[in-house]
Amino acid sequence: MSRGWSIYVIALVVLNIVATVWLLWWTSRRPKGGPDPSSTTGHVWDGDLTEYNKPLPKWWINLFYITIVFSIGYLAWYPGMGNLAGWSGWTSAGEHDQDKAAADAKLAEAFRAYEGQPIDRIAQDPKAVAFGAAIFANNCAMCHGSDARGAKGYPNLTDADWLWGGTPDQILTTVLQGRQAAMPPLAAAIGGDVGVTEVAAYVQSLSGIKADPALAAAGKTRFGGVCAACHGVDGKGNPALGAPNLTDRTWLYGSDFATIREAVTLGRAGMMPAHEPIIGETRSRLAAAYVWSLSHPAAGQDDSP
């Protein structure tokens, strides 16, 4: 809160307290000689029910004063006057941090058994997989979907196709450290609009999609000179670079001609954030174990007798 707003809030609070005290004092004054027992407000109901104009009892008035004194003490103890911290030093942020620390300690105790464990081993424990599913729902489902089947630009985590590799260590590294895809715009490098069209046709032909043979043949040469550096001469990709396999039927952004041309022309820059700084190392392991179990259903079965 800025200094100006803080002064405004303090002035407003003080003005309200002073005005309340004055109003209470003014309305509780007793006339000289005592109240007129015949004085009424003029309100009459049912012919004989009259509202008299009499002051409140002193004990009731004093209760009002006590509440005002309490409010002043409350504002002095807790931060309720602009930027003034209050004598107690209490803050909502501090209380949040204490509650979070207590909750984190409970979670750490619950997750202690999984610290440093390989995710394929963790995935054999149904309880751990349930923990991982909850962590996934809170932190990963907004991109990959509640069923982990992904969407356009977000990988399906339930199949056997992995951009950065599907081994337990590779999946864990992806969750802990994140990934940054970097396909640069290639239109200028492969011959402009004509080159993009030819390469797009060739890429479609790699996965068995019907494409113009002449365009695909010309695109193969251009692909080998530029695109093969990441996707390989055979187009099967490179998990070390996150370069997808272009020979299967799994497409992150779509397999239609226009979408492929867009990718070649403009490039792609998908980003998976690192989750270790967000949810910690052990919870990242549990989430990764859940992801592992989705494409390895047998892993989630407990083989213990």
Automatic annotation (TrEMBL):
InterPro entries: CcoP_N, CcoP_N_sf, Cyt_c-like_dom, Cyt_c-like_dom_sf, Cyt_c_oxidase_cbb3_su3, Cytochrome_c_Oxidase_Subunit. It comes from the Bacteria. Component of the cbb3-type cytochrome c oxidase. It comes from Arenimonas terrae. One of its GO terms (biological process) is oxidative phosphorylation. Belongs to the CcoP / FixP family. Heme c 2 binds at residues 183, 227, 230-231. This is Cbb3-type cytochrome c oxidase subunit. GO terms for cellular component: plasma membrane. One of its GO terms (molecular function) is metal ion binding. NCBIfam families: ccoP. Keywords: Cell inner membrane, Cell membrane, Electron transport, Heme, Hydrogen ion transport, Ion transport, Iron, Membrane, Metal-binding, Oxidoreductase, Repeat, Respiratory chain, Transmembrane, Transmembrane helix, Transport.
